[in-house]
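Throughout our pipeline, every protein is held as a single compact record rather than as scattered files. Such a record has a labelled line for the sequence and another for the backbone structure tokens. The remainder of this section carries one protein's record, kept here as part of the documentation:
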Amino acid sequence: MGSGQSIFFPDNGHRRERADQLANDCRDFQHLYETRREELTNLLGPYKEKLDKVLTALGCSNIADLDRLVTESATGQVLQDWESVKSCYDTTQLVDQIIMGAIGTIAVAEIAISAIGALLGPIGFMSGIAVTSTIVLAIGVVGGLYEIINGAVQRSRLRDAINALFASRIKMKFLLDKLEAVNTWIVVLQSVYQVYEACDYDKDKIIEAMKQLDIARFMKEDQDKITYYSVAKGLSDMDSNRDSWRNEDPNWEELARALDTVNAMLAQLGANPVIMSNALVADHAAISSSVHQPEIVSQIEHDKCIESQMRLSIFAQNESPQVMDEPPPPYEEHVSVTLTSKDGEPLASALQGPLRVSLKDFADDFSAYVRIGSAAEDTFLVEDGGSVVRTSGTTNLASHPQTVDWLVSFAEPAEAKRFSATGQELHPNLEQQPFAEIRIGYNTSSREPLYVAADGSLVKDISIPGTVFVARYARVSV
């Protein structure tokens, strides 16, 4: 179904290639993220024994007790920082516990910990799950159903996949960059635990030593350089260098600015900005009313990606023939083509030049009802006295009284498969364009079907030379 009908959607091949490229980028980033996460787990895992000792020294049995201790003893900026920081961790995970243990003792020592706030967020194991689900969903839809849906639905779902994966790629790379940057302060985290040992896990000595520790080494400035905007800019440069097809990508600048704005606002509310924004569940109106912030910029691109993800989910759950084969609105889709006679017959003037073929609907997998007009001027093809002529056109093809719905079909059903196998990409050189051998039919209630011949006449006999045309895509400057 997708092969023959995709003649009206020449960029579907590019769209599918772009969706695959974005998905592969996401999978690569995810693999690196998981690898780095495992390395971090292996590095910090042995610190569990030291964590238990320092918790005991502070009179705590677990991280929940440490949270209560900080909440009860800290005030002002220290308490505010702790409330913001702790939401970024999954306390059921060992690595998170070890990091929280270090940060908690700093807070108990009444040291403001905002300097390390920017480090928090890529650490939690849950951070990438929403992004991962988007990858699986998008690839499942465009991969598993691609060949059994028509060109119009292919185009819509591929656009949705591009939007959803484009946003997911930015978020996954943001998580990866943040996690990579953690390595710059691992040495400081290790030094905190070395202090515990040096103080022989004595509470008073630990608190005093924390006050002497050079917290500035947490490299906040380097962490602050990692923003959604900086990440998206790098990805845009990567796409440019590899000459990616980006005709229908979301506006990366607007999307990144929106993500950075939401990220900052969620952090101000004490929510985990990475998990929340990656789950795409932020209620921006509610956030705006809760926090005094400038109006969220460029929210359209962000909302577009959310809507695409939702449509993919709905489509994946509803695989009925009606949904998979839903045609576009009449005459909305069109392609520009040039015709030549397969038999070498000269073309009537009405058939010459680039023609604009507007889709009404599909008759079957191999033919469609269309309106045909000039791609360069306001005229279109009609029947007059048994011949094809051009008449003055109108931009409203659906309502013009003289318009004709022509039946364009592949000359042979096998042509559909051959055309699909060549791909439908547009090339600068017309002779390199993929081509299809077609017939143009004309049906009326009072006559047998007629076919357009190269000389512009309408004939009954399809064996007459000139009734098969070679159609190629044409680039037309508007």
Summary: The domain at 334-473 is CATH 2.80.10.50 (Trefoil (Acidic Fibroblast Growth Factor, subunit A)).
